[in-house]
Amino acid sequence: MTGEIAQMKRYGNAHTKSYGTAHGKRYGKSVAAAGVCAVFALAGCSGPDSGSGAGGGKSAFEGKSADAIAQEAAAAMKTAKSFRTVTDGKQRGQRTRMEIAFAGDGRCTTTLDLPEIGRVESVTVGGASYSKGGPAFMKMALGSETAAKEAAGRWVKGAQSDSTCKRDTLVNPAAMKGATRGADAEVDGRRTATLEMTAQDNKVTMHVAAEGKPYVLRIVTEGALTSTATFSSYDRPLEIKAPPAAQVVEAKAAAQQPAQ
Questions:
Q1: Is 82 within 8 Å of 104 (Cβ atoms)?
Q2: In this predicted structure, what is the pLDDT of residue 253?
Q3: What φ, ψ does residue 220 adopt, rounded to 5°?
Q4: Quick one: CA torsion of 186, 169, 41, 8, rounded to 10 degrees?
Q5: Which 8-state DSSP code applies to residue 176?
Q6: Helical residues (DSSP H) of the chain, grouped into ranges
Q7: What pLDDT digit, counting tens, does each position of 83-134 carry?
Q8: What SS3 class is residue 19?
Q9: Euclidean distance between CA atoms 115 and 196, whole angstroms
Q10: CA dihedral angle for residue 133, residue 135, residue 139, residue 140, rounded to 10 degrees
Q11: 8 has a pLDDT exceeding 90
Q12: Residue 251: its pLDDT value, please?
């Protein structure tokens, strides 16, 4: 798979620069490796996760600095067995959406909606990535309209890249080092401490759960790039399976089919 999927790369690179978590970086380098790397299938973005819910009481972060909170969040995120995230963004006046389910490094699924390309679904598991989408995506992924037609409705298999489906690529609170602490807030009824910083002329606000485990619950980017990433369903059972073999086509084999 080549790097001609420029639109996906621009989306990924812009999100990476915006808040340093590389939340979208994989949709640049990883796309080249597997059509679109991999990560989610229908992120539920459901309500409270593990830990106590919203309510009164003292915040676990009372009197703590932004850097201390970022360190605690970074440590907690490394222990999360699974999570889901939904990112709604807007770039150059066009809306984008990415839904991810993460079940550990190298095991995740993704649904990505992009202007002009449409919806692309991906699964990463067992050291491989499987992706499928409409005609526009399949043509870019396989390099020709003939190959795209032959593979229509099937999953394109490619090798998993190093950056595909990595915990620190998806969210990295340690990147908020040097942030300031904002006013406490709530995300879906859960109390949060907020960390604020400016990156690439964009204001970034990270919400960290102030009760229960200090997981990241939301990241908001405001400026030339606008996006909101909401995290949920921490530590819930999540099974990632490769598509049935009959529904899979090897990327190289499909791309090498002669034109008709």
A1: yes
A2: 56
A3: -115, 130
A4: 110
A5: G
A6: 6-19, 26-34, 66-79, 135-142, 145-150, 167-170, 251-255
A7: 999 999 987 788 999 999 999 999 999 999 988 889 999 999 999 999 999 9
A8: helix
A9: 30
A10: -50
A11: no
A12: 80
Looking at the DSSP assignment, which residues form a beta bridge with residue 249?
156
Residue carrying structure tokens 């909170």:
69
Identify the sign of the CA torsion 69, 71, 74, 79: negative
Distance from C-alpha of 202 to C-alpha of 219, rounded to nearest angstrom: 12
Contacts of 187 (CB under 8 A, 6+ apart): 207, 209, 217, 218, 230
Which residues contact residue 54 at a Cβ distance below 8 angstroms, ignoring those fewer than 6 apart?
48, 186, 189, 190, 191, 211
What distance separates the 2 farthest-apart alpha carbons in the chain? 69
Q: Provide the b/e sequence for 60-94 (b: ≥16 CB within 10 Å).
A: bbeeeebbebbbbbbebbeebebbbbbbebebeee
Sign of CA dihedral 159, 91, 116, 10: negative
d(CA 39, CA 164): 8
Task: Count CB-CB contacts under 10 A for residue 106.
Answer: 18
> What CATH number should be reported for the domain whose range is 6-241?
2.50.20.20
Identify the DSSP state of 233: -
